[in-house]
């Protein structure tokens, strides 16, 4: 049944051994998306193999986890460690996100926007912060029909900070 909780049922099904093909038969969700979810579930199983010994994990396993969207807390749960221990190890290994800009003009001309995001899929930041700064992270729920440009909560926060 399509709901906003459906993704969690799919994740549980993958953990229980359902194949992508079987999930496609049940849901008609495109194979591409199901394979993406399977990659995440498979990587979680790999992380769990480093049970209580996150330092034995190769750095590339952690890097891939971050690229797949795992939080430090999720990695810690998988390896039965603490979020702080995982974060320290990640920083020691220099597995850090970079700042990228969203191109809001579809490359029609050079864009210098303030719409930024963090990613583990880059090697260098698009923006260098040379002076003290504040980052306002978008607030509210992002669903179809809303976007960064119209996140009034974040805009209101910025206006108050400027005051």
From TrEMBL:
InterPro entries xrefs: CarbamoylP_synth_lsu_oligo_sf, CPSase_lsu_oligo, CPSase_preATP-grasp, PreATP-grasp_dom_sf
Classification via Gene3D superfamilies: 3.40.50.20, Carbamoyl-phosphate synthetase, large subunit oligomerisation domain (1.10.1030.10)
Domain Carbamoyl-phosphate synthetase large subunit oligomerisation: 1-120
UniProt keyword Coiled coil, yes or no: no
UniProt entry tagged with the keyword Cell inner membrane: no
Signal peptide segment: none
Keywords of the record: ATP-binding, Ligase, Nucleotide-binding
An example Gene Ontology molecular-function term: ATP binding
Protein name per its UniProtKB record: Carbamoyl-phosphate synthetase large subunit oligomerisation domain-containing protein
Source species of the chain: Cirrhinus mrigala
